[in-house]
Amino acid sequence: MTKLAQWLWGLALLGSTWAALTTGALGLELPLSCREVLWSLPAYLLVSAGCYALGTVGYRVATFHDCEDAARELRSQIQEARADLARRGMRF
């Protein structure tokens, strides 16, 4: 199962549970305080997911590793390509 499918299943499960609780389809009589919190729960979850995503991106950017070996290899390949093109008559 792909990660997208897992997220969609989780959202479908949470969404259907939320809809059933807010519409009273389960026959549960929730206290008023619980129903007030329940209505704003999707907004809280959306803001929490956004904060988590922002924090994850910030952490990944802060701990990004440079690939010095790959950079050296790329520079040498560029120099080889320039030398080859120079032999064929191209000027830079």
TrEMBL record:
This protein's UniProt keywords: Endoplasmic reticulum, Membrane, Signal, Transmembrane, Transmembrane helix
Subcellular location: Endoplasmic reticulum membrane
GO CC terms of this entry: dolichol-phosphate-mannose synthase complex; endoplasmic reticulum membrane
InterPro entries: DPM3
Keyword Kinase tagged: no
Function: Stabilizer subunit of the dolichol-phosphate mannose (DPM) synthase complex; tethers catalytic subunit to the ER.
Subunit relationships: Component of the dolichol-phosphate mannose (DPM) synthase complex.
PANTHER family in the record: DOLICHOL-PHOSPHATE MANNOSYLTRANSFERASE SUBUNIT 3
Protein name per the record: Dolichol-phosphate mannosyltransferase subunit 3
Organism: Phocoena sinus
Originating gene: DPM3
